[in-house]
């Protein structure tokens, strides 16, 4: 049996990772990370420190290419309707790792995911995939009524500072994630302007957009028509400088 935690580098996957260690023998637990090569630098710091704190290794199963390299190889830029970068760099890598476990004689595999209760659509998709592919799935934060803020507080209680990306983004995904909406992309422009400019150039190069009804350049010019409420924003406390 293997309990394979999808360890993305965010606080909810970190909470799920520690839950698995508490509930199952250490040898049964795998913390599985897929490197997109474009994670925020501080997210890599968080992953290293969390692994060291827990005394549990990170198992990496990665494609080897960056998000941008996948765009170049596919001759297209992904968008929030067709995030093929996520499929190639994450979902397919998970499936390859599960196939490796099965080839080693592991018959029972459970994918432990750090989804919260408001992510019901992701829960539905993950459950459907597990049924189709012959593995189990577990959502410990939902089962234990844990919110993202509680997961962040837990990480801090263990002495591991959450990724700095949470100061401006609701998620600690790769920077410039195509699944993000307009408010997210304006935050990318403000906080990671070089990435915003690079993605804007790729939109022009490939002739289609990340967002449904506007280019990033147009978005930067017009802004938002109305304020967007951040459903999953969290407070990670003062920064290292004490501000």
SSE topology sketch:
Blueprint: E1 2-6, H1 11-23, E2 29-33, H2 41-54, E3 58-60, H3 67-74, H4 84-103, E4 109-112, H5 120-133, E5 136-138, H6 140-143, H7 148-157, H8 182-191, H9 193-206, H10 216-222
Parallel strand pairs: 1-2, 1-4, 2-3, 4-5
Write a structural description.
The protein has two domains: 165 residues, HUPs (Rossmann fold, 3-Layer(aba) Sandwich), CATH 3.40.50.620; 45 residues, no CATH class. Helices cover 47% and strands 8% of the residues.
Q: Roughly how many Å apart are the termini?
A: 46 Å
Low-confidence stretches: none
| Radius of gyration of CA atoms, rounded to a whole number | 18 Å
Fraction of helical residues: 40-55%
Binned strand content = 5-15%
Strand order of the largest sheet: 3-2-1-4-5
Domain module tally: 2
Helix/strand-derived class? alpha/beta
Q: Tell me about the biggest sheet? A: 5 strands, parallel
Question: Which architecture of the largest domain would the CATH scheme give at its second level?
Answer: 3-Layer(aba) Sandwich
Number of helical elements: 10
On the 0-100 scale, what is the average pLDDT? Answer: 93
- The gross shape turns out to be globular
What would the CATH topology of the largest domain be? Answer: Rossmann fold
Q: What letter string, H or E per element, gives the SSE order?
A: EHEHEHHEHEHHHHH
Question: Could you name the CATH class of the largest domain?
Answer: Alpha Beta
Total strand segments: 5
CATH homologous superfamily assignment of the largest domain: HUPs
């Amino acid at each position: 049996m293997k309990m394979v935690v999808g360890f993305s580098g965010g606080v909810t996957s970190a909470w799920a990772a520690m839950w698995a260690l508490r509930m199952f023998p250490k040898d049964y637990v795998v913390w599985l990370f897929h490197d997109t090569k474009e994670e925020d630098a501080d997210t890599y710091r968080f992953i290293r420190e969390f692994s060291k704190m827990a005394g549990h290794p990170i198992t990496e199963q990665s494609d080897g290419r960056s998000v941008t390299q996948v765009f170049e190889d596919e001759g297209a830029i992904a968008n929030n309707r067709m995030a093929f970068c996520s499929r190639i760099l994450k979902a397919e890598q998970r499936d390859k790792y599960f196939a490796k476990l099965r080839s080693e004689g592991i018959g029972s595999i459970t994918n432990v995911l750090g989804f919260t209760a408001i992510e019901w659509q992701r829960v539905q998709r993950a459950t459907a995939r597990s049924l189709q592919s012959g593995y189990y799935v577990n959502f410990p934060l939902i089962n234990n009524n844990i919110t993202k803020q509680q997961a962040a507080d837990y990480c801090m209680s263990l002495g591991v500072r959450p990724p700095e990306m949470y100061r401006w983004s609701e998620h600690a995904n790769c920077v410039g994630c195509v699944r993000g909406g307009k408010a997210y992309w304006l935050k990318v422009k403000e906080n990671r302007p070089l990435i915003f400019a690079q993605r804007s150039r790729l939109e022009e190069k490939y002739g289609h957009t990340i967002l449904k009804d506007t280019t990033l350049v147009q978005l930067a010019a017009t802004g938002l028509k109305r304020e967007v409420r951040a459903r999953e924003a969290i407070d990670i406390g003062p920064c290292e400088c004490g501000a």
